[in-house]
């Protein structure tokens, strides 16, 4: 189904690598797709067109160019594509951080909207993990918009990646129909490839958390959603706090950009300050809550 086995045919490693390949193969099979590494100019040009379509940028401002991807593959970086009956429906690429850190920075991963619900993005990340581990990579990092619920859940719960830094306006202005005029605040996550939580998540056991249960145990609500959809600041005095985000920030950017801007400012002030102060995001409840420990739980 995928070329994961070929990735390590000449590099057979210890059992964790074999297990990573097995779960990657299973994820691709479940999604009903083929995943393979890409390196030809025509394939990489198809990735450029796919990203243009997903982010609605137009030809004059592509998220990445085929020539840059071509140079990255020559340098040994990771570029893969997901295919549904021969059609490219998703792609992912990343490059290496400093060698001493044994880290891959995964820059862009995107899947066509019509493929949502088939776990194509999950299969792509597991393929990336299976490619990385036999190359001595222990961690993959990437950024995501903390206001997008589905991305927070995917990264923190489904993949068990750990938020590490809040990065205000990280990319500066981006001329696409997804970010619009909003500041490009991002959260950097670290995916520790052989951690127990990540191994469990890749095996289909996500890191689930319950915001209501945390609240019943005394967690404070530091940020919530008002009846009309705006941010409502609360208190963050307890050891565990809940930080809410709106149901659909992307739609809000179109229908009420002023409210979307208020949300950006509120999440930056609350979640950003918590992470900067050393707090740890324990999880993300699918109902739209970050569960954040201001100190390690016992």
Structure description:
- The chain has 298 residues and is of the alpha+beta class.
- Among the domains are: 1-94 and 107-133, Gcn5-related N-acetyltransferase (GNAT) (Aminopeptidase); 211-293, no CATH class.
- Helix content is 36%, strand content 25%.
- It has a seven-stranded mixed β-sheet with strand order 1-2-3-4-5-7-6, with helices on both faces.
- It is globular, with a radius of gyration of 19 Å.
- It starts with a helix and ends in a 5-residue tail after the last strand.
- InterPro entries: Acyl_CoA_acyltransferase (IPR016181), GNAT_N_AcTrfase_prd (IPR038764).
- This is GNAT family N-acetyltransferase.
Keywords:
298 residues, alpha+beta, Aminopeptidase, 7-stranded mixed sheet, 10 helices, 25% strand, GNAT_N_AcTrfase_prd, GNAT family N-acetyltransferase, Acyl_CoA_acyltransferase
Q: What's the arrangement of secondary structure elements?
A:
Elements (H helix, E strand, L loop, with lengths): L3 H4 L7 H17 L2 E4 L3 H15 L10 H9 L3 E7 L2 E10 L6 E9 L8 H13 L6 E6 L4 H10 L3 E6 L18 E7 L3 H7 L8 H6 L3 E6 L5 E3 L6 E5 L4 H7 L1 H20 L3 E6 L3 E5 L5
Parallel strand pairs: 4-5, 8-10
Antiparallel strand pairs: 1-2, 2-3, 3-4, 5-7, 6-7, 8-9, 10-12, 11-12
Protein name: GNAT family N-acetyltransferase
InterPro entries: Acyl_CoA_acyltransferase (IPR016181), GNAT_N_AcTrfase_prd (IPR038764)
The gyration radius over C-alpha positions equals 19 Å
Give the second-level CATH assignment, the architecture of the domain at 1-94 and 107-133. Answer: 3-Layer(aba) Sandwich
- Overall pLDDT, averaged? 91
Distance between the termini: 43 Å
Unreliable segments (pLDDT under 50, ≥5 consecutive)? 8-13
CATH topology of the domain at 1-94 and 107-133: Aminopeptidase
